[in-house]
Amino acid sequence: LHLLKEITKDTCEWTRAQCVDLNISGVPASLLNFLAKQQLSKTNKVQENFRRNGLKVDRERVDHLANVMKKRRGEAFLTRVQEEVFERCMTLFGDEGWSLIESPCIDLKMWMKYFPPKKGERSVATGKAVCTVDCSAEQIAAWIMDFCSNERMRTSIEEGQPARIELRNKRKVNEYVTATVKAMPLLLHNREFIARMIWKSEEGKVWIAMESMDEEVDYGVKMKTIRATTIGIYLMEDLLDRSGVSQTKVTMIQRIDVNGVIPTWLVSQKVPYALSVLQQAADYFRQ
């Protein structure tokens, strides 16, 4: 079975499934797995034959989704489950007690709320970041939703992160499900995050809600991890053009529960890292 699904005018998603009966009994499972991988590896060769510049493909995907968001401005298309996710994520805006922290990113202002856990409690921290990006609200929202773009996958690999994937079988028009495994220092287990990201667009602004969900993911290899959880909200608001350049104010709030106790110094390091995704966006659209 070959299933081809158009993503943009010049990019598509290819799913291939194949069943082979060797008509031989007693073949070891390890040999069957080897033969299956050899057969399916031909798919990679086809992919390489048609591979184009990764950054150009990323931009096409962002522009395509941004146009979809513009066309659906103000439409009430959220499911009841999605509306409930937004309701929970929106409560983050009501939080108080923020402390301004030193931002490692030149374009971002950052705040954090963290109370060192007592005995038996877990480490939970909330971070907030605000910046201005040189693009429309729909473009920055589409960039955030494109979780496994060529550029961001490359960055993840360079940083030594064990896994970063999108569960394509869970994808909807305005909802993506992602899975990541974040590397932790020696003696601490890596943390696994599985979350849905949902967007909705209004006139002059786009929202993205993010919330952990209960899913089991096969990464292809065994990994010893601890399941962590997160909840977050993005607000992208169009600003007045500056010298003909579209600009957007982006506010991001994210709460992280590592499902255990980690040192305070590590929390202070990981929260700004999570928020720094907006710096990547600012650099990507800089004009």
Description:
By secondary structure, the protein is α+β, with helices and mostly antiparallel strands. Helix content is 31%, strand content 33%. The chain contains seven helices and twelve strands. It has helices spanning 29-49, 54-71, 80-90, 137-145, 150-158, 264-275, 277-285; strands at 2-8, 11-16, 99-101, 109-114, 124-133, 163-166, 175-182, 190-202, 205-212, 225-227, 229-242, 245-257. Strands 3, 4, 5, 6, 7, 8, 9, 10, 11 and 12 form a ten-stranded mixed β-sheet that branches. Strand 1 and strand 2 form a beta hairpin. Helix 2 crosses helix 4 (137-145). It is globular. The model has no long low-confidence stretch (mean pLDDT 89).
**Unreliable stretches, pLDDT < 50, 5 or more residues?**
none
Main sheet specs = 10 strands, mixed
Helix- and strand-based class? alpha+beta
Percent helix, as a range, is 25-40%
Give the structure's gist in a few sentences.
The chain is an alpha+beta fold and 287 residues long.
Give the helix/strand layout.
Blueprint lengths: L1 E7 L2 E6 L12 H21 L4 H18 L8 H11 L8 E3 L7 E6 L9 E10 L3 H9 L4 H9 L4 E4 L8 E8 L7 E13 L2 E8 L12 E3 L1 E14 L2 E13 L6 H12 L1 H9 L2
Parallel strand pairs: 8-10
Antiparallel strand pairs: 1-2, 3-4, 4-5, 5-12, 6-7, 7-8, 8-9, 9-11, 11-12
Helix pairs in contact: 2-4
